[in-house]
Design a protein that fits this description.
With 265 residues, the protein is mainly alpha-helical. It folds into two domains: 21-223, Butyryl-CoA Dehydrogenase, subunit A, domain 3 (Up-down Bundle), CATH 1.20.140.100; 225-265, Split barrel-like (Alpha-Beta Barrel). 61% of the residues lie in helices and 8% in strands. The chain has ten helices and five strands; from the N terminus they run ααββααααααααβββ. The strands form two sheets. The chain has a three-stranded antiparallel sheet with strand order 3-4-5, with no helix packed on it. A hairpin with a 5-residue loop joins strand 4 and strand 5. Helix 4 (96-130) packs across helix 6 and helix 6 runs antiparallel to helix 8 (175-203). It is rod-shaped.
């Protein structure tokens, strides 16, 4: 029989149908239906929760960068565990395809965010270096790779800022594969950069006293010899700074005690 209780259904009408003889079966069906309904509501609540979640962006060198991901990361971790728990429930069958698709979306979002942050950190470190014409000229192969990464990165960030909703931001075509390729290229660039710095240090061993960042600061501005000034103390124990003339020739070395030794040539 077709039985659809509504607000006007009475206990008397149920007794007339002799439902008490099927009570155990109805309780079993009702319990299953209740659990299925709970799972369906939980899935709907998760989707609703993500509707208002948006990425926050800062800015570096005129390009948007991801900021303040703690809340999104906590929600994502929580919902991935919930989705996996729901998928293992024996009552998920009516919504199995939906929950599998949702879990796949959440895991994809997690993979994208992880790769996104990894690429962002390396891009932020390398961008000031490869914005130098001197470095680009001295490292043409790495410079060409960085140009590719930089173009893809700016395109991803431009698209992301047009719609900051988390679900939309992470739904760009081939986003994960583009980020993974960018990460691979950035690793190649960093290896090339380290090799380049090693060659410079072997050529002038006092550069071993400088960190990579300090050495890059000097090498990225070879047209300005005075960029060595902040790092002289580390390279030469007795020299605090140098005295330059207007043509950027070195006239003398000066100690931290203001002692000055003139160069005769």
């Amino acid at each position: 029989m077709d039985l659809r209780p509504d607000a006007s259904t009475t206990l008397h009408s149920m007794l007339k149908l002799k439902l008490e003889s099927h009570l155990l079966k109805l309780e079993e069906i009702g319990a299953s239906a209740s659990k299925e309904s709970g799972l369906e509501k939980a899935l709907g609540d998760m989707r609703i929760a993500w509707e208002g979640e948006e990425f926050k962006f800062g800015e570096k060198s005129g390009v948007a960068i991801l900021n303040s991901l703690d809340d999104i990361q906590m929600l994502l971790d929580d919902h991935i565990v919930k989705a996996q728990t729901m998928r293992s429930s024996p009552f998920i069958k009516p919504f199995e395809a939906d929950i599998q698709q949702w879990e796949k979306k959440l895991i994809s979002m997690q993979d994208i965010i992880d790769e996104w942050l990894k690429v962002q950190a390396t891009w932020m470190y390398l961008e000031p270096i490869f914005s130098s014409e001197d470095i680009m000229a001295q490292m043409p192969e790495e410079g060409a790779k960085f140009t590719i990464v930089d173009k893809n990165w700016r395109q991803i960030m431009e698209t992301a800022t047009q719609d900051a909703h988390a679900l939309a931001c992470t739904d760009q075509p081939n986003m994960l594969s583009v980020l993974r390729e960018a990460s691979r290229l950035l690793e190649d660039i960093q290896r090339g950069l380290n090799k380049y710095l090693e060659v410079k240090r072997l050529f002038f061993p006092r550069f071993f006293f400088l960190s990579n960042d300090e050495l890059l600061e000097i090498l990225s501005e070879t047209k300005d010899p005075e960029r060595v000034q902040p790092h002289l103390k580390k390279c030469f124990e007795g020299i605090a700074r140098l005295k330059f003339d207007e043509q950027q020739h070195i006239l003398a070395m000066i100690s931290s005690d203001k002692e000055e030794v003139a160069f005769d040539r």
